[in-house]
Amino acid sequence: TENILTMTDLPLGTIDKILTNAQEFAHTPYWFEKKNVFAANLFFEPSTRTKLSFEAAEKKLGLEVLNFEADTSSVKKGETLYDTVKTIESLGADVVVIRHETDRYFDELAGKINIPMINGGDGCGHHPTQSLLDLLTIKQEFQSFIDLNIVVAGDVRHSRVARSNIEALERLGANVFVSGPEEWMEGELRSRYIPMDEAAEMADVMMMLRIQHERHAVQMVAGVEEFHQKYGLTVKRERLMKPGSIIMHPAPVNRNVEIADELVECKRSRIFKQMKNGVAVRMAVLDHVLQLTKGGYKK
Ligand code: CP
């Protein structure tokens, strides 16, 4: 059984295969015949993009979708994560997608669940399918990752998207920098830090992040306007960016906090392109773990 839990665990060859297949899915309107294959989506944390794009990907692949609502499930009666996932497996799911607020929730499941598990985000840990859709978006734009200057800016410390992307982009040969409040940068992040104006000038990709209020132990942001001016992608900073450089954001976006309202859909923005790519990438990830299209595609 192959799981997709972190980018760290994914060999470069697998990343390359998933991106190549995702590009194929993105460009060709494949629609697969219905199969007797069941996908369960277990979201214990809020989600719009990841949950719905997995559902869209599953339906496009011809899978049957089992949705799960944490708030009306037996988790409310104290059932554990392990017992919940084991139940889903026993009911006949062939693959399970899980988002959970606990970092590395999957460690307690590994080796005990006999269907592929795909991580849809774990606490401040990892978000591999977001990273893969970001990689696809960058590849479509620049063809290669070698020596690209990528700046991940904002609440880097609490971001599972940042963690997954920094690790993967570094391995793929990009130069990865971080920006935002310097006091939020700890350990390894410190060596990557550059101030926001410098970041805007040198970036090929400006990857903006939302402030993860839900993960801050204390209120760390005094004023939204002050944060925007000091650390956000303002209209003024966008003007410093090089021709051909792009703006990305995993979304949800807090307009006029980490990014100016006018920039969300500006010419450089690939934010909605990222979301579109999310469906194709999740099709490729599901195909990879379930080996659905091994025998060839049926249009
Ligand atoms: N980017 C992302 O993971 O969005 P959702 O939280 O809406 O799924």
TrEMBL record:
Coiled-coil regions listed in the entry: none
Entry keyword Hydrolase: no
GO molecular function, one term: aspartate carbamoyltransferase activity
Residues bound to carbamoyl phosphate: 49-50, 99, 127, 130, 251-252
Catalytic reactions on record: carbamoyl phosphate + L-aspartate = N-carbamoyl-L-aspartate + phosphate + H(+)
Aspartate/ornithine carbamoyltransferase carbamoyl-P binding domain residues: 3-140
Residue ranges of every copy of the Aspartate/ornithine carbamoyltransferase Asp/Orn-binding domain listed in the record: 147-288
Keywords: Pyrimidine biosynthesis, Transferase
Xref: Pfam families: OTCace, OTCace_N
Family recorded in the similarity comment: Belongs to the aspartate/ornithine carbamoyltransferase superfamily. ATCase family.
Protein name from the UniProt record: Aspartate carbamoyltransferase
